[in-house]
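Response to reviewer comment R2.3. The reviewers asked that we include at least one raw input/output pair. We reproduce the pair for Pyridoxal phosphate homeostasis protein here without editing.
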Amino acid sequence: MLKENYKKVRAAIDEACEKCGRKKEEVLLIAVSKTKPLSDIEELITIGVNDFGENKVQELSKKYAEVSKPVNFHLIGHLQTNKVKQVIGKTCLIHSVDSFHLAEKIEVEAAKLDTTVDVLIEVNVAEEDTKFGLKLEEVTALISDIANKCPHVKIKGLMTIAPFVDDPEENRPVFRKLRQLSLDIKSKNIDNVSMEVLSMGMTNDYIVAVEEGATIVRVGTAIFGERNYNI
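Raw output as returned:
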């Protein structure tokens, strides 16, 4: 069932790309495997799935250590500064940098290992009280700060978690604002910064996100089914 679910989501993304004149290769589908067993990841690996999203550092680290072959783990959940050391080298992309304090901690740990860390800046476009992330007007200043002071932190783009809505069309303005912000920042040609990644869209709204320019969509429920957070 997991394989069929994944293929169904991928096909829907490809169809959306075709309709809006984009190449399907432009959109990466991350299978959000948080709270799901390693066996689910192993099953998807057999059909060539290579990118998985995790919310918690501890869970990501455990799966990283135990998975049968190397895959790309994305940290999509909030990252506490005291967990940074544990995740360096295990994640291909941290989607959730939302403060200079966090970027500074990543810089320190990356410098110790003489490596660079790819990150996205998390933007709370809808300004929901329950979500992490910066306001739109705060993003450019933070990016400039990180670019100037954190040479081991490579900003690759932006991420947002849109509101959970019944009608995905309600989130179109959210995705549109993030894309416009990305274009505005790209036009500034800030050293050490690229805006090649727009991580936006989840199970309930990923088609709209693709139509509005997402280069990464993070889909969990439509692939793995509902989660049991009590286990």
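The two ends are 22 Å apart (CA to CA). The first strand starts at residue 28 and ends at 32. Further pairs are available on request from the corresponding author.
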